[in-house]
Structures are given as structure tokens and as C-alpha cells.
Amino acid sequence: MSGPVEGEAVASPAVPAQAPNDPTAPAKTDAKDAKPEGDGASKKMSGAELKKLKQAEKQAKRAQAKAVGPATVQQGGIPKENQKQKEQKQSQKKDESRPLPIRRRPSQSNAVPQQQARKESKRDQKQLGLFFGHLYSQPRQHSMVGASKDVHPAVLALGLQYSSYVICGSTARMVAMLLAFKAVIESYQTPVGTSLARHLTNHHLSPQIDYLRGCRPLSISMGNAIRWLKDLIIKIDPSTPEAEAKRDLVEEIDMFIRERVTAAQKLIRDQAATKILPGDVILTYASSSIVEQTILQAHKAGVPFTVIVVDSKPLFEGKTLARKLANQGINVRYYLITGASHAVKGASKVFLGAHAMMSNGRLYSRVGTALVSMLARSHSLPVIVLCESVKFTEKVALDSIVGNEVAPADEILSEAERASLLPLEPHLPTTHPSKNKNDDKSATEDTKSGPLDVLKWVEGSENLHHLQVLYDVTPAEYINMVITEYGSLPPSSVPVVHRLSTNT
Amino acid sequence: MSVHTPTAEKPLPDFDIVSTYRSILAGDTELTMPVAAIEALVEAIAHSSVSTVAETLALLEHHTAVLKASIANPISLSAGTDLFQRYLITTLNRPAALNLGPGDDFRAIRNHLLSNGRLFVERAKQSREKIASFGKHFIRDGATVLTNGGSRVVGALLRRAAESSTMRFRVVYVLSDSKSSDLKEGDQIVADLRAHNVPVATIPDSAVAYSLGEVDMVIVGAEGVVENGGIISRLGTYQMGLLAKSKGKPFYVVAESHKFVRLYPLSQFDLPIEQKVLEFRVADDTKGAASKASEDEGIADMNGTKAKCSGLNADDAVDFTPPDLISGIITESGVLTPSAVSEELIKIWF
């Protein structure tokens, strides 16, 4: 796993050289770059100087974020910029044009038209404001380019795994993050003149978190874990020796994972497995590790039952689940969400995983979950949510619009689907910008347009937008039971347990 | 009601928990099952010579298991035993809370437990009166109340309401013609109410929907209140709930909070007891496959098989009324919405 990542880490310093279009830019970039490198080398500077440098870095980072995110227009509050930062911003933009070497998102073979896409999406996002525009305010980052130099290699690798969905799922992401933070803490050294409790959270952990957030918005569980960790660090007695403090932190993280995830999952699956009775047909949507564990546990206990997996594009998480279960000898039926109403007819219970449980008892989970639970409710099937209490949040959600995560729209269309759309090219409106562009460019490329052009059509289109939200909100009325490590609850008791689990 | 005393499986002391439980229950007609169970367990500890915390808990566990095994429907009973066990564990784990120094011996703790256990029983008895005083305000002047079964706490509530001179109300009482133990209690309540000048109509189960037009509210008792706020109650309560909901009549449950059970049924067939209600048969009286009907909405038809099966037959059977049919649960600690029950249970259990 770490192989390709390290390779990229090595590759990234070469980036400025690859921005050849503007001859002035590389020189300036180098000048700028020299400075941060100087910071890194001279750790023995005085505190005041360090502070100044930190500030400079912060500003640079802000500029970077702006360069990466075209949509920052919506964020308002544009900070004052001096000449230097503008230059850096420019050079950052150049970086973006570089072909990105490793991109494992399945739907994307090659990321050449990155810059164009960005230019166009800038225009796009202004139009998307109807319902989901606010969700685009945070730009997605799919590479390590532009990452702050403070970001730990383990975190860099993790970020790529997040954005490519290699590590997916609320709990898995949280655990992976905590493990990466362990590495961060272990290799951390408190700079002279500061204390661990103050420096680690604000100045060392924050860039890591910002980078991860750029790769993919933080999950609720990650937010909870980060809050817990920061709280823990802040409460460290300043007189504690650094080595001891670090060791304690690492131990605490291990304990947190053990108690809140490993043990919790065991309790949940033990309890949930008892709800699977002989002859049951368990329906589940997409893939949840805890549902998988529960089903396997019941299967190992010798209960005869079958499973229906309902799945949907673009991630097709259910495929893996169905395959795993079938390999264990469980009778599995696999439907796509389009066949959900049919699937529900044959089921007797619905088990769902969760991204988060909201304080109003609503379930925030993979998009499509609400549909499945509504169908189940209309067939009066019991809907059971399995959720560790670390995924409970004090937030409430009334709909899926206000808080959600948009994935890059190009993931909606798979390679094959794009290819099948290619013959439609002659029907593009003549005023279509991307068509014009193609015409302008050259006749050589015009004849042979690849599947990637399909995305450009959509992006360039005035009236057609791709929208891919990742989550939806299931009303509490559709949920019969939430199984947590504290026991079984009705969804209305989620805030009570959340209070309990955070206070004690 | 076959009493089989499992003397064989008793490695610990020679205390007959089951007969104690039965005699306590028989000795005081006002007593509910969970309270009787707690009283029996207190008695058991008093009779034993345990000297450590672990021993006490083991003894308790053993007696609880024996008691549960001897009763056909241990749901309501388990509410009491679980509660007592939980109480013991918390007090035994925190001896400091009892104002005992660390030097105090186990005997002091044990005495404290015993006295507190008795206190609990006393309090449980009083709670019925408290519920009655809360609940009577739910009955408005001129109202018609529909109720069923032989719940003593419902009886207490109605009596209390009848005693107040300012209220005139009528009662529709569902009395099944079965020979269940509830019947006697029900007859008693009806007679009492009539003596208090409250007009009472008694109807069979089949007339519930018919009478609902005349009814303003439904009040029922419960054997157990489960974690999601639903109730487990005498067979026929579920259909009353469904009908009341469909007619928009408020459906109130009166139950002491010691009836809160740590149980989460998802449907009628998800109860931890064996019920012989649905028994499919064909013409020649061979044993049809007594199966659990897989369709979820199958309301147990109690007129169908009211016959000679051992165990929990239709007369003593219970059903589960889901929380969305319940308007409120009147307990001695206040009137709760169904969703507040789980909160109360969490408070006890964590």
C-alpha cells in the first residue's frame, strides 16, 4: 500500500519544473520555495521568528487552498494578498495542469483534462446553486500536490486512499485516521519554546486534518474522534515529559479504537445476530462492515437464513459484500436499487449500516438507504440500524440537502457508459462550448474522441449537470431499532446515548 | 399452572424460591409479579448465608433462573428480577454510596440490601396509588373510557376517578368469556365501579370496533413495558390499539415503572415466550404444524383456538402493542411518551 504513495511523494518536489508555460513562474516559485525549505532546515530559530514563519506558511496555505478550490468565491472574506502570494497562487495553478500520476478512482482512467475541467466547473458551480450549490464550497483534492509540507507521509497516503475510496466507510476511515495520527504523534517533536499540549493540536495536527478534509470531507465519526483526541492532548499536563506524553497518547488511541470500535462491534454483532431467526430473509443495502459481521456471526451459529443485498452505482459496495457472504456459504440475492421494491417483497428484516445517527433519530447513510427503508416500512418490515455510538452526533438533519457530501460528478458515469454515449456526439448543440473547443483545437483530435469527452460535454453544457451526493437522511419513523454497544434503542434515544457516551 | 419445583438443579441452598414466590403472590392480591419476584429474592438472600458480593450475585442469578423457568410467561417477572439484580450490582459496586467505610464488613452491606429491598417492595405497592392520582386527570367529565383485562392499576385509577364527586364518566369494559385469571379481577372492578354509580357496559372482544364510536379514550394496563415504548399485555390489547389509532382515540397505558423490561420485540412473534395461539389444523385432529405465521400483520385470532394446550394458550397469551399506537404511558414517576421509556431504562441500566 505504501509503495506507490512513497513513489508519489518523491515525485512531488519535481512539480514546479513541470509548469513550463509561463517562463516567469518557475523562477518565482523557486524563490518562494526556497523560503519554506529554509524553515524546515533551521529548527533552531527563535520563537518569534518561528511564529513569523508559521504565519507566512499559513498565508501561503490559504493561497494554495484558494488556487485549488475555484469555488472559494462563495466563501467570501477574501484575505489581503500581497504580490508574492499571488505569484504562488499562479504557480499552484500551473501545478494543477500537470497530469496526475496515480488516480485509482475506478471510473477514471486518465486525468489529463484536469485544468479544463476546473475552468469549466468554475462556471458550472455558479449555476448549481439551486439546491446543492453550497455543497461545492469545499474543493476536492485528489493528489498530494499542494499539500502542506507539514503533512505526515502516513497522512498523505491516507488522504489518497480516502479520495480513491480505497478506505471507505465511516468507521474504517476513522480507525485509519487514528492509526495515521499515531504515526504522526510518534514522529512528532515539540519545537523549542512551545509545549506539546499547545503546539501539537493547533500547529501540527491541524494541517493533517485540513489535508484529509481536502481529500474527502470528514466523516462524523472522524469529527468525533478528532474532538476526542484534541481534548485529550489539550489536557496533557505541560510538565509531562514529551516521550511519556506521546506514549500515553498512542496508548489512549489504541484504547479508543479497542473500546469504541472493536469491542463495540463485538457487542453489536452479538446482539444483532440474535435478531436473525431461522428462516429470515435479511435485506441490506450497500455494504456495512458491522452488518457483514452480524450476518456472518449468525451464519456461524448455524441459523438458516438468506440475504438480499441491494446495491447501487457508482461505488457498488454491495458487490463485495455479496461476494464475501456467498463465499461463506450464505444464500445471497443481489439487486440493484432499481429493483429494490421487488427485493423488499421477499425480505423479512432489514439491517442497515450507518454513516452517522443524528440527534433527531435520523439515519445518515449511503445514498439510497432512505429509499430502501421507506420501502421496508411500507411493507411493515422491521428496519434495524447497527451503529457504534462513536458515530452518533449531536447534529440534527432534516433533509439530505443541507448537509451532504458531493463526490466528483464524473464518477457517475463509468467508462463503459461513457463509451456508449459517444455515438451521440453529432447531436451536440452547435453552440456547445466543448464542441467549439474541439473544433478549434485541431482536426486531428476531432475525429477520435475518447470516453473522457463525454464528461466534457456534460461539464460544458448549459442545462445539464451531474450531481452525485453520497449520503441521504432516513427519517426516524422508518427505523424500528438502533443497535449500539449500549443496547437496543428506539431512534429517539440516540441523543441520550450520545450524551452518555461523550460525558463518561 | 403446574408447579414443578426444580430441586434437582439447585447446587446452592435449599431455599424454594418458586414456592416462596407463589405464596407471596397468593398472600397479597394487590401484588404484581415483578414485585413478588423481588420480594421472593430478598427473602432468598435473607435466608441464605452468603458472605461475599460474588456469592450474592451467583445466588441471585441462580434463583432468578429457577424462577423464570418455572413460570410460563416470565416477561413481567423478569422486569422485577432484572431491576433488582441491577440495583444490587450498582450498590455492591459502590459501597461508599451506602455511607459505609471501607472497613465495614459485608454483613452491613447485606443488611442494607435487605432493608432497601423491602423498602423497594413498599414503594412499589404505593406506586399504584400514585399512578391513580396522576391518571385520573386524564378522564374528563362526561368521557367514556374503554378498557380491558384485569389490570389492578387500571382498576385503581378508575376507582379513584369514580370516588371524585366532580366527574361523571362511563366505562366500556372488555371482558372475554374465557376462564383466564383476569376475569375475576375484571368482574371485581366492574362491580366496584357500578357500586360507585359509574355506568359500566361489558362487551366481548369482538365488539371493540363496534363500540369505539362511543368511546373517548382507551386506558389499558400492561404486563411489561418494553424498551421501544411498546407494551406487552393481555391478548387483544394490540387490536384495541390498532382500532383506537384508526379512529383517532387516545390510547393510554398505565404501568408502574418496575414493569419496564429490557426487551425489544420487533413483532408479535419476537417475544421470548412460547405461545400457542396460532395453531393450524386440518379436519382430522392430527397435530397441524403449529407454526409462526410469517406475515407480520397476522393478529393472533383468539377465538380460533381456545383449547386444551398446555403452556401459554390463548387465554393467558399476550401480545405486543408497538409504541406508535400508544399516546402516553402513565407511571408513578410521571406521564411518559413511549420514546421516553427507553430513556428511563437507559438511566437505570447505565
TrEMBL record, chain A:
Organism encoding this protein: Didymosphaeria variabile
Localisation per UniProt entry: Cytoplasm, Cytosol
Ranges of compositional bias, category Low complexity: 9-28, 423-433
Molecular function via GO: translation initiation factor activity
Listed Basic and acidic residues bias regions: 29-42, 49-60, 81-98, 436-448
Alphabetical UniProt keywords: Cytoplasm, Initiation factor, Protein biosynthesis
Source domain of life: Eukaryota
Name listed for the protein in its UniProt record: Translation initiation factor eIF2B subunit delta
Binding partners and assembly: Component of the translation initiation factor 2B (eIF2B) complex which is a heterodecamer of two sets of five different subunits: alpha, beta, gamma, delta and epsilon. Subunits alpha, beta and delta comprise a regulatory subcomplex and subunits epsilon and gamma comprise a catalytic subcomplex. Within the complex, the hexameric regulatory complex resides at the center, with the two heterodimeric catalytic subcomplexes bound on opposite sides.
Start-end of Polar residues biased regions: 107-116
Principal localisation: cytoplasm
InterPro entries: IF-2B-related, IF_2B-like_C, NagB/RpiA_transferase-like
A Pfam short name: IF-2B
GO CC annotation, single: cytosol
Sequence similarity: Belongs to the eIF-2B alpha/beta/delta subunits family.
Region (Disordered): 1-124, 423-448
Automatic annotation (TrEMBL), chain B:
Subcellular location as annotated: Cytoplasm, Cytosol
Superkingdom in the source lineage: Eukaryota
GO molecular function: guanyl-nucleotide exchange factor activity; translation initiation factor activity
Keyword flag Ribosomal protein: no
Listed GO CC annotations: cytosol; eukaryotic translation initiation factor 2B complex
InterPro entries in the record: eIF2B_alpha/beta/delta, elF-2B_alpha_N, IF-2B-related, IF_2B-like_C, NagB/RpiA_transferase-like
Keyword field: Cytoplasm, Initiation factor, Protein biosynthesis
Coiled-coil features, chain-numbered ranges: none
Major localization class: cytoplasm
Tagged with keyword Cell division: no
UniProt-listed SUPFAM superfamilies: NagB/RpiA/CoA transferase-like (SSF100950)
Subunit structure: Component of the translation initiation factor 2B (eIF2B) complex which is a heterodecamer of two sets of five different subunits: alpha, beta, gamma, delta and epsilon. Subunits alpha, beta and delta comprise a regulatory subcomplex and subunits epsilon and gamma comprise a catalytic subcomplex. Within the complex, the hexameric regulatory complex resides at the center, with the two heterodimeric catalytic subcomplexes bound on opposite sides.
Family: Belongs to the eIF-2B alpha/beta/delta subunits family.
UniProt protein name: Translation initiation factor eIF2B subunit alpha
Record organism: Didymosphaeria variabile
Organism placement in taxonomy: Eukaryota, Fungi, Dikarya, Ascomycota, Pezizomycotina
Encoding gene, per UniProt annotation: GCN3
